[in-house]
Backbone:
């Protein structure tokens, strides 16, 4: 699935924010901040990562999976999609 | 909740690994890697963050929540704990 | 998406088991059974319902979504699929 | 943890609604209803069961876990709580 340079830049920027948030939590632990505040931050990072993941999942379904369906080879591409979705929804 | 320096070091190391994994995904996107491989990595990071979160959750329950219960003020500490549980399990 | 009578029977049987498990929890509450045992049962029911859901999700993707893609109208079918994915993974 | 008769009645009523919803899905499958509508119903049931579960989790934490903490035996009760919570959040 070839993303445009712009799409790639947007996704990478989103992940840089997540990277910064993870560093932020390290600092909170360093400073013995209240556990509940740290946990709220971890939940926010997880939710942010899931949004990025759903974005990629949609790209993949519209790109690679649809092409496989059009070429008559949708079955295995859909089974792979389901496996990733199951793993993703349990993480 | 005061963690020992050793506990803090272990938690921060775990989060540094997550930080490195997030950078790894940025690279995968840069290199147009297969979407499913990127999604599997995102699931792994989410799972890693959740494990760190459960660890902090247990510390908090054994520390701050238990002290509040012992001082006869458990009700509000437990309600706060439940809110974090719910938010955490939806992320 | 037309399921065969056999597929319908298997799905309905699975859901009848879930129905029985839900009745079982009512009984556990009636009998003041230990909360943790009740919670383990609720988790088992949720997991059972999710498996049935993933099964239906795969049928739908192989059926209706693939047909829409083949007819050149995949975009909206996939966006609908993603919404269900997200809702399902948060429940 | 002894619930009052009123609390028990409210929880059992909530679970009877879930039981009815599960029967409703069997009917939807019988009638070949649209998969997405069925999946939305399954998500609603899962969310309803989770709310009931969090309710029981809070009762348990305020009841049995707090009593164990007050009797100086909080450690094992909290570890049990964490296991149930992890299982619950993955279901």
Residues:
């Amino acid at each position: 699935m070839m993303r445009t340079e712009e799409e790639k830049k947007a996704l990478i920027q989103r992940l840089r924010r997540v990277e910064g948030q993870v560093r932020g939590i390290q600092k909170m632990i360093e400073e013995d901040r209240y556990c509940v505040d740290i946990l709220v931050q971890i939940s926010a990072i997880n939710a942010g990562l899931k949004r990025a993941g759903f974005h990629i999942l949609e790209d993949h379904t519209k790109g690679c999976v649809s092409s496989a369906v059009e070429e008559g080879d949708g079955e295995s591409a859909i089974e792979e999609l389901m496996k990733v979705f199951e793993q993703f929804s349990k993480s």
